Write the structure tokens for this entry.
Amino acid sequence: MVTLIDTQAKRAARHPEKQKRPDSVILRKPEWIRVRAPGGSVFEQTKSIVKENRLVTVCEEAGCPNIGECWSKKHATMMIMGDTCTRACSFCNVKTGKPDALDPEEPANVARAVATMGLEHVVITSVDRDDLDDGGAAHFVATIAAIRAAAPRTTIEILTPDFLRKAGAAEAVIDAKPDVFNHNLETVPRLYLSIRPGARYYASLRLLERVKERDPQQFTKSGLMVGLGETKEEVMQVMDDMRSAGVDFLTIGQYLQPTRKHAPIDRFVTPQEFEAYETIARTKGFLMVSASPLTRSSHHAGEDFARLKAARAALEEQHRS
């Protein structure tokens, strides 16, 4: 059965670079991956705060399946530097094209929203901005500083681009000292050319390694999508690569195809397989692992950060005794 989820006009506007691709069948979702439609008073309140502060969220732009749950808990992942990405990854639903100029008021607007929502933990991500000399690093730094000033008790997690070929950009963001530095590898090296053509696997891996070299106490995090045609052995090799780079926290979730023009789903990975991946990852030494069909980088980020800190403290105590 095919589910139609986009009109041709809408998808052409968001993803003009994909329109020459042949349509692919969108597989019917299994029972374990369906979610309730968003709604409720807290959801509407969160939506209002986002709108009033002229913010963009990855929850909306990427079509996250967890938006109803997260916004009903006043959790939202802010996406800075606009809603238009300079990359054209075949898995992503964020609009691609030529971005607008940066909004100098955005860091303050984000910080005000964080303070208004009373967030204990916030996730800040962005589109790729290859058009900027620093890839948007200074905007990340300004946003972190603004949140620290407006909501000093809020812990900050950033989910960054790769800053590919942007000298000094990653270092500037690392030195801003977010509590968690997240950069997703997304998929296995073999699939990069078709899934993430604008990126380089080992450049992304090296970015995560550089965080640990520059600030060993900064938590690092990375994520994978499965169901794109990867093998179990390839996923395990990526786990080993991440651990070699010192990554603390691994997330693994099911890839969901946004439109018929995006990369097709190879298969739906079962909950039992996700449990097996989590067990394997924990034996490899990750401090924290989240693996399930609906796992996303920022899903339950606040609760997971608390567990991450506790896991490090327990490990340090174990080493002292």
Summary: The chain has one domain: 36-320. The first strand starts at residue 77 and ends at 80. Residues 136 and 270 are 38 Å apart (CA to CA).
